[in-house]
Specification:
About 60% of the residues lie in helices and about 0% in strands. The chain is mostly helical and about 170 residues long. The protein has a domain of about 110 residues. The longest helix has about 30 residues.
């Protein structure tokens, strides 16, 4: 029996889940925010800049929470990762809706700048995760065994290929 209600079978391997993309994502988000906030503050106003800062904090917190929850679920059993990811996504969507709805239309924070910052931040974090996955050597199955070393007196040729019969002479 597999799925959400299956008995936990334990993790497939003892290798810990790699969360190194969180550090990279935080650093990239910090660098982009450090440039975007003062530029926006000078060009569009400081309420817009504050919206960008709050949006960057929200997106960074959401991605870090997702990574930690999914890694925790994966340590229990691989089949728990999808429900954990979807559940976390649903909760984050409700929290974001509550945060955006609670802000006044004309307040100390520009809601439109915050919303666009959340969109841009989510795209930025998605790019960081995509690059992280594409540049890692991740085995989805067990890696193949290393090739067998030849001995000093073995000669390459017919013995290496069982389909070739040695010539008799």
């Amino acid at each position: 029996m597999s799925g959400l209600f299956a008995e936990p079978t334990g993790p497939r391997s003892d290798a810990p889940w790699d969360l190194s993309f969180l550090r990279v994502g935080v650093l990239v988000a910090l660098a982009v925010t450090a440039v975007a906030v003062p530029v926006t503050g000078l060009l569009a106003g400081w309420s817009d800049a504050l919206g960008i800062l709050v949006g960057a904090v929200i997106v960074t917190a959401f991605f870090c929470v997702s990574g930690l929850v999914i890694a925790w679920a994966g340590k229990i059993d691989d089949t728990w990762t999808l429900p954990a990811a979807l559940g976390t996504f649903g909760i984050k969507a409700l929290v974001l809706y509550a945060v955006l709805s609670a802000l006044p239309a004309d307040g100390w924070l520009d809601r439109r700048a915050l919303a666009w910052s959340v969109i841009a931040g989510a795209l930025l974090w998605s790019g960081v995760q995509l690059r992280w996955v594409w540049t890692r050597q991740i085995y989805y199955t067990s890696p193949p065994p290393p090739p067998v070393a030849r001995t000093a007196n073995s000669q390459p040729g017919a013995a290496d290929d069982p389909g070739i019969r040695p010539a008799r002479g």
